């Protein structure tokens, strides 16, 4: 999607609809409003440079900023609420710039395009006449979109992580990686927890404290660092690179790009929450965007959200 007036209108409507669903929370993100910011270190693997010439994957440890979050735009949302969780990582480069990876606890995405995502969000809005969601609106949306229905099905299988440190996180978009020898291939990022995965049912999650994910993370980090392996799943011939609702076959090869070690909570986490912007389009030479229309719309959405929360809206 180009940055046309029409696409900008859709992006604005996306942000407005997310805010409408979450309620009024001035100064917070339109989505993923509740989170915690951590500090960490990333060490690239020897195989990483075979995939790309990107500076942060050539060797040597890099400082990182990591944010874990819930998907709701309500900063008071209960941590046991079934929803997507996210891990966003900002690699701090030697030249003062940064490269970001954004990944979710459920593989893939619920919509193929920004317009389709807007339709999905609007299906969740309450009926003005009753103040309640329209009973058949979401099932009707999912019924005609098998990729969207499959995403929701995966979410229902893993509704609530037991810990931010015990979920895998998947970047739903494909990127084009170019190595020093000129070879090029598409890939998708995956963060795999060294502690293994652990999930709760919606019922069990609801019995935990409202902030149990943050509390558990703080307690876990007191005992030492937590770690994730960053893997790159390589596309095969014919695998779509512009549709985030379609998962690539599980037998597609994965290359380990490195190890992310998270050492503690940021001393300025509350301030970081307000000022930081993580954007999947924020990358460096050797990594290019695919033609995924959802990916191409995200920078504009984050800019609108940041500008509004910076004004206390």
Kindly list the characteristics that best describe this protein:
two-stranded antiparallel sheet; 313 residues; alpha+beta; single chain; 25% strand; disordered N terminus; ten-stranded antiparallel β-sheet; globular; 12 strands; Catalase HpII,  Chain A, domain 1
Large-scale geometry: globular
Oligomer category? single chain
The CATH topology is Catalase HpII,  Chain A, domain 1
Helical run tally? 9
Q: Could you provide a short overview of the structure?
A:
The chain contains 9 helices and 12 strands. The chain has 313 residues and is α+β, with helices and mostly antiparallel strands.
Walk me through this protein's architecture:
- This protein has one domain (32-296): Beta Barrel (Catalase HpII,  Chain A, domain 1), CATH 2.40.180.
- It has nine helices and twelve strands.
- The protein has helices spanning 5-22, 48-51, 114-122, 137-143, 146-157, 202-207, 212-222, 269-275, 293-310, and strands spanning 35-44, 62-70, 85-92, 98-104, 160-161, 169-170, 175-178, 184-193, 199-200, 226-234, 254-265, 287-289.
- The strands form two sheets. Strands 1, 2, 3, 4, 6, 7, 8, 10, 11 and 12 form a ten-stranded antiparallel sheet that branches.
- α1 runs parallel beside α3 (114-122) and α1 (5-22) packs across α9.
SSE topology:
Elements: H1 5-22, E1 35-44, H2 48-51, E2 62-70, E3 85-92, E4 98-104, H3 114-122, H4 137-143, H5 146-157, E5 160-161, E6 169-170, E7 175-178, E8 184-193, E9 199-200, H6 202-207, H7 212-222, E10 226-234, E11 254-265, H8 269-275, E12 287-289, H9 293-310
Antiparallel strand pairs: 1-2, 1-11, 2-3, 3-4, 5-9, 6-8, 7-8, 7-12, 8-10, 10-11
Helix pairs in contact: 1-3, 1-9
